[in-house]
Amino acid sequence: QVELVESGGGLVQAGGSLRLSCAVSGFTIENYRMAWFRQAPGKEREFVAGVEWTGRYTYYRDSVKGRFTISRDNDKNVVALQMNNLKLEDTAIYYCAATSGYGYIKSMSEYNYWGQGTQVTVSS
């Protein structure tokens, strides 16, 4: 049974930090590129950060560059997203996703598996 389980979300003040974690079971993530997406109320789901198989190459949306860091531990089958200097506009449900494909890493359609999401709320 494939499962991606996100954790680490919560309520934080602007300027604060959170670390999201995605624990994967049912497949080995070393064969998958991994990513985080988010969806704010009334908005479409959007790409946040992605990481290729070994962790050497990472990708970010412009608005989180320099603040967020994606990482992976293939031995533990876990992907993390460190979020620093959080802003009000980072409030959203954050989803972990996995793709076995070789297409555009920022495209939702690339992804085979999704987690249920974890809520991140940034307050002023």
Task: Please tag this protein with its features.
single chain; globular; mainly beta; about 120 residues; 11 strands; 7-stranded mixed beta sheet
Topology:
Blueprint: E1 3-7, E2 10-13, E3 18-25, E4 33-39, E5 46-51, E6 58-60, E7 68-73, E8 78-83, E9 92-99, E10 113-114, E11 118-123
Parallel strand pairs: 2-11
Antiparallel strand pairs: 1-3, 3-8, 4-5, 4-9, 5-6, 7-8, 9-10, 9-11
How would you sum up this structure, described in words?
The strands form two sheets. Strands 2, 4, 5, 6, 9, 10 and 11 form a seven-stranded mixed sheet that branches. Strands 1-3-8-7 form a four-stranded antiparallel sheet, with no helix packed on it. The protein is 0% helix and 49% strand. The chain is built from no helices and eleven strands. With 124 residues, it is mostly beta strands.
